[in-house]
Design brief:
120 residues; mainly beta; Immunoglobulin-like; 4-stranded antiparallel β-sheet; 4-stranded mixed β-sheet; elongated
């Protein structure tokens, strides 16, 4: 019985440890059709539901046409923050771009995705 209780406690502990304490309201955004050369921006909002302050370690875009902007000040428990992602439409056609976000102290990264179609 003691072993079962220990295993149960370890499983509960491991599952809560693996869950992120950062929750985004959305991680995908579709701009729809946009004109070539136009800058389009979307803001991805998140909330810190953990007990420790949340600090963005990095937010990396996969190409130079996508620019993430964020504040590196700590976001306390229950507070909200955001990451602004601006896309400059350099070529016509369908696009799908990713921004990888890593918070200090979190093992997992979050992937923010923007997509749409650039028209002439």
């Amino acid at each position: 019985m003691k072993i079962q209780t220990l295993v149960f406690c370890l499983l509960i502990s491991a599952s809560s440890w693996a869950q992120s304490s950062i929750h985004f309201d959305k991680t995908n955004h579709n701009f729809g059709k946009i004109k070539k050369g136009i800058h389009k921006t979307v803001i991805f909002n998140y909330e810190n539901t953990g007990t420790k302050p949340a600090v963005i370690e990095f937010a990396n875009a996969e190409c130079g046409c996508t620019q993430p902007e964020y504040n590196q000040n700590p976001i306390l428990k229950g507070q909200k923050g955001n990451i602004k992602v601006t896309y400059t439409a350099p070529f016509s056609g369908v696009f799908k771009k990713r921004v990888t976000v890593k918070f200090a102290g979190e093992k997992a990264v979050t992937e923010l995705i923007i997509e749409g179609e650039v028209i002439l």
